[in-house]
């Protein structure tokens, strides 16, 4: 596989960033990881200052602006982590953060303080054993969501070991992977990786993360075909991002593209309060208007759930269904799944 571009100098050499712009990006590169795979580099239009692909993957000095409401752990994983690598926020499912590296680093990532070469790395054998013991000891856990980082960056051998361990837990029925790999590094979806995914005997899903229809290339579609033909169910997840997909027509093309690939649109996330990401965020009011316009354009098969992860670990709520009220100062009061109310400012 061709090497990813992981430094500002490499991005300059590839013609993706000008020398003039590069001089201002040193502090960004020192703070947040950079990686652009060849598949993504080929999609970037370096002559378009508003290119929606570049905006997702290339570093920007705006990332150095941190607003008071932004948080290192914006969705509150920490308080719900009983053992390293496990987040148990909802009764019947857990997150398993198997790895904290990715083939690419999204500039809006909500775990950007934890991922990358300087992040938390891959789970140690000891931590993985503790995680498996926790899952095995909680019979209410029906689903494990393997995330990170991007878990499909693991080698087939490591992935097979993980699936073998999960396969021994009788009450666990579903294993879901959250990944950008079929879009950003489609060559990784090999027969050996598919064999590893199938090895547990459990039902396996992959939630594919893509935010713009241009990301659904022929190679990405072929990778998705390999997963589906290999017995993997697929859903989508996207983030509503200013300057990327904050347009009902763009979202319609993206969601239709998913459905044409046999990927069911699942989640459209309101952007989280991650550090240095305010230039991507739009208000809940704007987001709800865009989703309403999307609903008027596409069939129900193409409609994702528009979700907000309430800061502080209070869980996800659908913004088109949950009680959301705006206050006089322009903030919101949001009711979570347990009926508790929370103040939210965007």
Quick tags:
single chain; alpha/beta; 9-stranded mixed β-sheet; 3-stranded antiparallel β-sheet; 12 helices; globular
Can you give a write-up of this model?
The chain contains twelve helices and twelve strands. It has helices at residues 8-13, 19-22, 26-31, 38-41, 52-57, 125-136, 156-167, 181-184, 191-198, 218-229, 248-260, 284-295, and strands at residues 86-90, 93-97, 143-147, 174-179, 203-209, 233-239, 264-269, 305-310, 315-318, 324-326, 332-335, 341-344. It is α/β, with parallel strands linked by helices. The strands form two sheets. The protein has a nine-stranded mixed β-sheet with strand order 1-2-3-4-5-6-7-8-9. Strands 10-11-12 form a three-stranded antiparallel β-sheet, with no helix packed on it. The termini are far apart.
Low-confidence stretches are: none
| Oligomeric state of the chains present here | single chain
SS content category: alpha/beta
Outline? globular
As a percent range, the share of strand residues is 15-25%
Q: Helix-strand pattern, N to C? A: HHHHHEEHEHEHHEHEHEHEEEEE
Tell me, rounded to a whole number, the average pLDDT: 94
Q: Which range best describes the helical content: under 10%, 10-25%, 25-40%, 40-55%, 55-70% or over 70%?
A: 25-40%
Q: What is the β-strand count?
A: 12
Task: Give the radius of gyration.
Answer: 20 Å
Number of helices: 12
Task: Please write out the topology.
Layout lengths: L7 H6 L5 H4 L3 H6 L6 H4 L10 H6 L28 E5 L2 E5 L27 H12 L6 E5 L8 H12 L6 E6 L1 H4 L6 H8 L4 E7 L8 H12 L3 E7 L8 H13 L3 E6 L14 H12 L9 E6 L4 E4 L5 E3 L5 E4 L5 E4 L2
Parallel strand pairs: 2-3, 3-4, 4-5, 5-6, 6-7, 7-8
Antiparallel strand pairs: 1-2, 8-9, 10-11, 11-12
């Amino acid at each position: 596989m061709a090497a990813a571009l992981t430094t500002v100098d490499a991005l300059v050499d590839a013609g993706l960033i000008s020398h003039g712009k590069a001089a201002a990006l040193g502090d960004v590169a020192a703070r947040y990881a950079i990686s652009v795979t060849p598949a993504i580099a080929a999609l970037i239009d370096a002559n378009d200052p508003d290119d929606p692909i570049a905006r997702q993957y290339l570093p920007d000095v705006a990332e150095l602006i941190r607003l008071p409401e932004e948080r290192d752990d914006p969705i509150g994983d920490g308080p719900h982590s009983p053992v390293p690598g496990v987040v148990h926020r909802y009764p019947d499912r857990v997150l398993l953060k198997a790895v904290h590296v990715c083939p690419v680093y999204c500039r809006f990532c909500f775990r950007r303080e934890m991922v990358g070469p300087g992040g938390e790395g891959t789970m140690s054998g000891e931590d993985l054993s503790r995680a498996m013991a926790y899952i095995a000891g909680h019979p209410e856990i029906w689903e494990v969501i393997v995330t990170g980082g991007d878990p499909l960056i693991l080698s087939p051998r490591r992935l097979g070991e993980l699936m073998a361990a999960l396969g021994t837990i009788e009450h666990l029925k579903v294993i879901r992977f959250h990944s950008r790999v079929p879009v950003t590094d489609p060559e990784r979806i090999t027969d050996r990786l598919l064999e590893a995914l199938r090895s547990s005997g459990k039902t396996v899903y992959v939630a594919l993360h893509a935010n713009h229809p241009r990301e659904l290339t022929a190679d990405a579609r072929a990778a998705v075909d390999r997963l589906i033909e290999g017995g993997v169910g697929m859903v989508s997840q996207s983030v509503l991002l200013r300057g990327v997909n904050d347009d009902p027509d763009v979202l319609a093309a993206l969601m239709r593209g998913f459905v044409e690939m046999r990927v069911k649109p699942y989640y459209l996330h309101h952007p989280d309060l991650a550090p240095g990401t305010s230039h991507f965020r739009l208000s809940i009011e704007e987001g709800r208007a865009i989703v309403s316009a999307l609903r008027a354009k596409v069939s129900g098969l193409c409609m994702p759930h528009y979700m907000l992860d309430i800061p502080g670990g209070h869980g996800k709520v659908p913004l088109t269904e949950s009680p959301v009220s705006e206050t006089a100062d322009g903030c919101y009061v949001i009711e979570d799944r347990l009926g508790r109310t929370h103040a939210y400012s965007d």
